[in-house]
Amino acid sequence: MIELINLVKKFGALVAVNNVTLTVPRGEFFALLGPNAAGKTTTIKMIAGLMKPTSGSVRVSGYDVVQQPLEARRQLAYVPDFPFLYDKLTPWEFFRFIGQLFLMDSARIERVARDLCARFSLDPYLGNPIESLSHGTRQKVAIVSALLHEPSVFVLDEPMVGIDPQHARVLKDILKERSRAGTTVFISTHQLSVAEEMADRIGIMHEGRLIAVGTRDDLRRQSGTDGALEQTFLALTAQESAVDMQGVGQKFGL
Hints:
about 250 residues; Rossmann fold; 10 strands; 9 helices; alpha/beta; six-stranded mixed β-sheet; single chain
């Protein structure tokens, strides 16, 4: 599970994440939505241990990400929107390297990697240097490497970027399979259709704050809409923008 407790991240005077508290239980598929610069990627980087909170805390499977980083990272896999890979390695060499980092034996690496590579149609590229691969193929390599050790928490930032529709469907199926088997899946996406189709619960961030969390029906009730998630999202963020503007007006006596 993932626990965010009064999470704050500041960059100078900018408050990128503002007092976010959230619990995502074991086996839940959670989608985080928000406009650009809402704080989604900053939140995800704190979950992944790549960025320290200014205040508050993050716990992954019960481990504090700052105080117990190794224990937390053993539980977690993270795929950014533009993943870092070792370009001079082949995908197969990279999978072996990642598997060994997580103390997997060779037989298990072989079994899990072969299955995932077949599903993502990676077999023709396993012997080619990663630097020669297209962005979409590199993204699939990153996803396979993240899934290798069968993490209990899987965090993805814009996972569908650059992936063709066929393999986007494969990824959706795998994520749903993993969540049903008990993996906590946490994704950030601008593709509202992905959240609407896949997520058990959805969170919406706006200017660093988590302004809404719930099922699709919960969010519809909160927004006063009864249509697609796009309508709900636009209504909730518009409401929040109106509240923010009212606050600015009061501050300056307007």
